[in-house]
Write a structure and sequence with these properties.
The chain is of the alpha+beta class. It contains seven helices and 15 strands. Among the domains are: 2-15 and 45-131, no CATH class; 548-616.
Length: 617
């Protein structure tokens, strides 16, 4: 604790020593003295109101440009040497003898903060961009680049491959394979290393060729046709020229089975020579160092051999003395080991006896636990089986109840459907009877009209006969007879018109009765459909508590029956298929939905037509 406190005091002393005493501190001291002279009391500092503090506007504050600010180099900045005495020479008083003065912080109610309206922010002057002097920047001198590239010629097929010689080396030889096109190129550096091969193994082997180290001629199109005079004459001619100041240092290519594109990498010859000299100098230096190391190693070896010989003689004597001491120590060690083994054997036997006893106790406890677990398991299995048997019986009872409810619902639905079918048949018979009565009335009216016409015809013939007989008697009698005949003809015509009007009224009445009967049948059909649907929903709701299957079955039966009705009606209209009277036997083999023959029999019995639905059967 004392050491930590001493180090803390030393750090505080170093920080206080390094703090500069500038004009700001003097100003603060002067201001403080002036305030004390003015009558300020301890703990009641006068802080001017914020409305009385003058802060210049940002336009009135002059900030010099960064080019006009002089920052001396770090080598020209004088940092005074701070002498920190050694910890043994520093006297650190005991913490009980260090006096830390009391720092009085005034209460927040005694601190006066000026209002924001009394704080003056000085104007910050930022010069216009036209008045800012930007020094002219000279373009640096363009030096000759160390590395350059030649033009890149060829196509864009294949994959990119690149090779570059190490520092101080350049390509001196090329391995080339060509046919009508260049199949493969590969460069060898002046140091003997080979670069990445570009291309396949087709064409003829042209071997290694020493070519120019600055320029190589090529012919290219989609592929490289000729390289350094080897290959075909397709494509256009190009020169991969690095220039007289450079040498070929590597290449960038694209290739697959053939060479698609090639470009040479160039480096200044002076740079390569300097690198080669540097590398050679390093090699020479390494060789000289190796020779010096070999000479020193030889000297050391000779000295080591002499030392070894002396050490050997000394070692022989020491070995003899050590052997004697070792024999003595071995005898003592053997006796100690014998005693130790005897003691260990005794402890081992005691431990074995204790372990045997522990295992016997564990086996007995394990056996008791297994027996207890077996009894608990048997009781649990028995309870589980009883529970499962109880659940199975409950499920069977529920299933039996559900099936009974389904059978009752199905029987009720079938009975209601049969009653509805009987009712519809009776209504149909009534309609047919009404139609027959209307037809009979029409026929009676027609018969009456014909009888009246026949009577009129007989009367006309009688009149003509009477006219013929009376014509000879007198003209007056003829005229009277003619007038009488005209009157009778007018009466006959009137009777015909009355018969026609009566017949039209009878036809209208029959048509109205037929429309009313059709409307009644349609309404009865809709009501029957609604009742069947309501009964199906009611059955579904009653059955849904235990099983949702009947809903799907009812829907499937309705869909199947509708589909079968469409099929039957289509067969009725098609002359190639049997009629309704033969449909029973024909459809009996359809067992996809079941009850196909029964459904067809109901279709025939109900006399359903196109656009009808099975729900109304």
């Amino acid at each position: 604790m004392n050491t930590k406190f001493a180090l803390l005091c030393l750090a505080l002393l170093a920080v206080a020593w390094s703090l500069p005493v500038d004009q700001k501190l003097e100003d603060v001291q002067t201001s403080t003295k002036g305030m004390l002279k003015a009558g300020a009391k301890w703990g009641h500092w006068h802080v001017p109101h914020r409305h009385h503090i003058h802060i210049p506007h940002r336009h009135h504050i002059h900030i010099p440009h960064r080019h006009h600010i002089h920052i001396p180099h770090r080598h020209h900045i004088h940092i005074p040497h701070l002498h920190i005495p050694h910890r043994h020479h520093v006297h650190i008083p005991h913490r009980h003898h260090i006096h830390i003065p009391h720092l009085h912080v005034p209460h927040r109610h005694h601190i006066h903060i000026p209002h924001r309206h009394h704080i003056h922010i000085p104007h910050l002057h930022i010069p216009h961009r036209h008045h800012i002097h930007i020094p002219h920047r000279h373009k640096p001198h363009k030096h000759t680049p160390i590395d350059t590239l030649t033009g890149s010629y060829g196509g864009n097929g294949g994959g990119a491959k690149s090779g570059t010689c190490p520092e101080g080396q350049w390509i001196t030889s090329w391995y080339i394979r060509t046919g009508a096109l260049v199949d493969q190129v590969r460069g060898k550096c002046s140091g003997g290393g080979m670069l990445t091969a570009c291309g396949g193994n087709g064409g003829g082997d042209r071997g290694w060729s020493k070519l120019s180290t600055t320029e190589i001629g090529v012919r290219t199109g989609r592929y490289v046709d000729k390289f350094a005079g080897l290959g075909g004459n397709g494509g256009g001619s190009h020169s991969l020229n690095c220039g007289s100041l450079y040498r070929i240092h590597g290449y960038n290519t694209r290739c697959g089975a053939l060479v698609d594109r090639i470009q040479l990498k160039c480096r200044l010859a002076s740079v390569l020579d300097a690198e080669a000299k540097k590398i050679q100098a390093a090699k020479d230096k390494a060789a000289a160092e190796a020779a010096e190391k070999a000479r020193i190693a030889k000297m050391r070896k000779d000295a080591e051999d002499a030392r070894v010989a002396a050490e050997k003689a000394r070692a022989v004597e020491e070995a003899r003395l050590k052997k004697e001491a070792a024999d003595k120590a071995a005898a003592e060690k053997a006796e100690a080991e014998r005693k130790k083994k005897a003691e260990e054997e005794k402890k081992r036997k005691e431990a074995e006896a204790a372990e045997k006893k522990r295992k016997e106790e564990e086996a007995a406890a394990k056996k008791a636990a297994e027996e207890k677990a077996a009894a608990e398991k048997a009781a649990a299995e028995k309870a589980k089986k009883e529970e499962e048997e109880k659940k199975r019986k409950e499920a069977e009872a529920a299933e039996k109840k559900r099936k009974a409810e389904e059978a009752a619902a199905k029987a009720a639905a079938e009975a209601k459907a049969a009653a509805e079918a009987k009712k519809l048949a009776e209504e149909k018979a009534a309609a047919e009877k009404a139609a027959a009565e209307a037809k009979a009335a029409k026929e009676a009216a027609e018969k009456k009209r014909k009888e009246e016409e026949a009577a009129a015809k007989v009367a006309e013939e009688k009149r003509k006969k009477e006219e013929a007989e009376a014509k000879a008697k007198q003209e007056a009698a003829d005229k009277a007879a003619a007038e009488k005949a005209a009157a009778e003809a007018a009466a006959v015509k009137k009777a015909e018109e009355e018969a026609i009007a009566k017949l039209a009224a009878e036809e209208a009445r029959i048509r109205k009765a037929a429309d009313a009967l059709a409307a009644k049948q349609k309404k009865a059909k809709e009501e029957a459909e609604a009742e069947v649907l309501a009964e199906a929903n009611k059955i579904a709701e009653n059955v849904q508590k235990n099983n949702t299957a009947p809903i799907a079955e009812i829907a499937e039966i309705i869909i199947a029956c509708d589909h079968l009705l469409e099929q039957c009606l289509w067969m009725e209209d098609n002359a190639d298929y049997p009629q309704f009277g033969e449909m029973y036997c024909y459809m009996d083999g359809d067992t996809k939905y079941g009850g196909a023959a029964r459904c067809c029999a109901q279709v025939i019995k109900a006399g359903l037509k196109p656009n009808s639905k099975c729900k109304g059967m």
